């Protein structure tokens, strides 16, 4: 079964260049393994209407939607109330989360700002946060995770067993130096036409150790991926390359 | 003057996790310096309808749109014809580019696949590629760049002097260890309410050297940014932090 997912990174720090993203690749790889490959990613600022519209659009188009960022206690952490609004449900205190956070901070330090982290859209299921307690949550097909990579990853692994898996994606790669994409393009297009059920990708690389190209066959039918990989290997040989299995060394 | 930009990363390699993005932060920082800050980023697969729809939507919403990826010679390089279609113009041989590429490859190696790299949307202006010759291009407010980071950066610097600049964005940051966001949230919200023309951001960090928070004031009026930075400093002192100017050490 083919399942799809989308990812929304919420916050200004990637858009301004303050922070280099460290969440996309982890989620892309893990979702590929679970058979729910990422099909679209958006990076948006913490503007109320933008968050609501983006969540509303993507949750209708994809099987699962993941968000990162904007679930802390500060004024710019507005992901949770915006998701509530996208689902048309109240944003309210989640009693078990309130109790856990109050215990953690102590009643005297559990101020209004921190109490915000105990509010969830009505009907949401918390996603445990083993690092810093304040949970993420799932509502419908939308999964709201922290933006700090270490916390995001821990939350994702809490969530993963509950996700409905799709057929896993298989992938095989050959690379060669010295040959360029231009010499391979016609042969590669012919392979793509033979294997319309697969993605045949071509990725040039420019490294200290030499220029070349990596060719990737990817899809949900392992035998077809193997057959396409053989065809890629044969094309590289035919054009005078020295095919080596796998990605080029970094 | 406030100007805005959007970025579209085209290709499957970021979505599948094969490649970690190395273009967003560079463009985010450079566009901030030019006063054309990034307001939205999309990562999309090389699917014709998706590229056309995304370019069409974003070029209407933002002053400038940048794309990376999908301009090589292979079957999955479809950015250029899709941009032509988004603008409703033919995709045709650009004679000066054809001549330069033919010279570079030699007539005997200048095959059909490589000739595709000499095709541009009618009316587009090439963006020189000092690394590997095949150009990017601008048409209207859409700027089409290579996906390989080294080539993308070179193309961007060719393009930058031709872009209409906006007011540059100023930014000042204080960080402290030991204090968390929860203790600062109310005071920070009050600062945001005093400085509605600025973005006041709060970014927790979790490092070997300790946990803490970085607070950023950002906007186009330098004096206002300085005043907000002073207010942030005073808040950190008041709450018992040890404010240090700048980002926390990595």
UniProtKB/TrEMBL annotation, chains A, B:
Gene3D superfamilies: MoaB/Mog-like domain (3.40.980.10). Residues 6-166 form the MoaB/Mog domain. InterPro entries: CinA, FLAD1_M, MoaB/Mog-like_dom_sf, MoaB/Mog_dom. It holds the Pfam family FLAD1_M. Coiled coil: none annotated. SUPFAM superfamilies: Molybdenum cofactor biosynthesis proteins. SMART domains: MoCF_biosynth. This is Competence/damage-inducible protein A.
